[in-house]
Amino acid sequence: MAEHRSMQRAALLDAARSLLSEGGTDALTFPALAERTGLARSSVYEYFRSRAAVVEELCEVDFPVWAAEVAAAMERAGTPEGKVEAYVRQQLALVGDRRHRAVVAISASELDPGAREKIRAAHGGLVAMIVEALGEMGHDRPRLAAMLLQGVVDAAVRRIELGAAEDPATITDAAVAMALRGLHG
Predict the structure, then answer these.
(1) Residues of the chain with pLDDT > 90: what percent?
(2) N or C, which terminus of the chain has less Cβ within 10 Å?
(3) Closest CA to 99 of 136, 126, 69
């Protein structure tokens, strides 16, 4: 019984990822989840009390995996500058990944305060990963620099997601240049 519930919950989360990735937060509805998983709509409520609960669990499951991929890329870099470049490049490389697309769609949605706080905390953990490297590069306020750097990454993510005129590699290169050299890149 517990294994069946676990499998159903995983199927619901996978369906939620697909819906978010295909149609954004408006597509994430309980009827759509029920249709994708073959469950009755009332059964979906047995697993999640609300759309926000689905979103919270997606963040709890997917964000650590995404952050671990960014951390692994940074660990492979030999210099603080290399870590910054890896931080930017790895996040932007994940843009096409369904987990990432779901997190982006989620962060753009109307969520209850609890869900927003969980997302904010997860992003805070991501930003914290780069603070040390920025300090080693000589930033006198590395935490602030890290938050601003994440803003550059977030803007590049949106640009890629929107299907901008520039290809993703050009956007990524521009974001890396801005991260490492500012507007003189």
Answers:
(1) 49
(2) N
(3) 69
51 in Cβ contact with 30 (< 8 Å): yes
pTM score, whole prediction: 0.77
Which one-letter amino acid corresponds to residue 125?
G
Contact residues for 90 (Cβ-Cβ < 8 A; gap 6+): 69, 70, 73, 74
Tokens (6 digits) for 2: 């517990």
Amino acid residing at 113:
P
Amino acid at site 63:
F
**Nearest-CA neighbor of 30 among 8, 50, 4, 56?**
50
Residue holding tokens 């932007």?
92
pLDDT in tens, 175-184: 999 999 986 6
